[in-house]
Amino acid sequence: xxxxxxxxxRDGVINHDSDAFIKSPDEWLPVEGSIEAIKRLKxxxxxxxxxxxQSGIKRGYYSRQTLSQMHQKFVGLxxxxxxxxxxxxxYLSEDNSPSRKPGTGMLQAIEQRFDCSxxxxxxxxxxxxxxxxxxxxxxxxxxxxxxxxxxxxxSGDQRLQNIPVYEDLYAVVEALLA
Length: 178
Prior knowledge:
- By secondary structure, this protein is an alpha/beta fold.
- It is built from 6 helices and 6 strands.
- It has helices at residues 34-43, 64-77, 105-114, 128-136, 149-154, 169-177; strands at 5-8, 47-53, 85-89, 122-125, 140-144, 165-166.
- It has a 6-stranded parallel beta sheet, with helices on both faces.
- α1 runs parallel beside α6 (169-177).
- The longest helix has 14 residues, at 64-77.
- It starts with a strand and ends with a helix.
- It is found in: Cytoplasm.
C-alpha cells in the first residue's frame, strides 16, 4: 500500500495568521490542536508536507533566516517527530511565480521529493489560493475556518461549493483518521 501524504498550508491552518504578517518566532503561535493533529498524522504513518506563501520575505518584513527560525520553533513543538517537508514561496502575487499558490510549483516539488502523485491527496488550507492549487493538482481540498477561512467562506466563491469545511486542522485530521 502506498504511503498516505497530506499537504498543509501554514498561516491560518497550523499557526495563527495576521493581516500584518507573522514576522518573528515570537509571533508564530500554533492554532489550538494543530500540533496535536500533525502528531496524530505522523503516528498514523502519513507524510506531512507544508506549502506556504511567504511574501513577507520579498516585502522586507522578515528574512529567510527569520523564516527558518519560525520553522525551527514549529518543528520543535512536534517534540522529536519529524515534519517531512516545508516548501515556501517568497514571491508576491504580481511576480506571477509558478511557485506561489495558486501556482503548482510547490506541489510539484513535493511530488518530486517523495516520488508520488498528489492526485486525490488531501490539502488543507484557509484561502481560495489553497483551494485553487489543490483543484489544479486534482487533490482533495479541505477548507478550515481558522485563519482567513471564515473570510474565504464569506466570499461565496462558487469553487467552494463542494469543498468540505471544518472548524480547524484537528477536525480535518479526526475525519481523515476515522
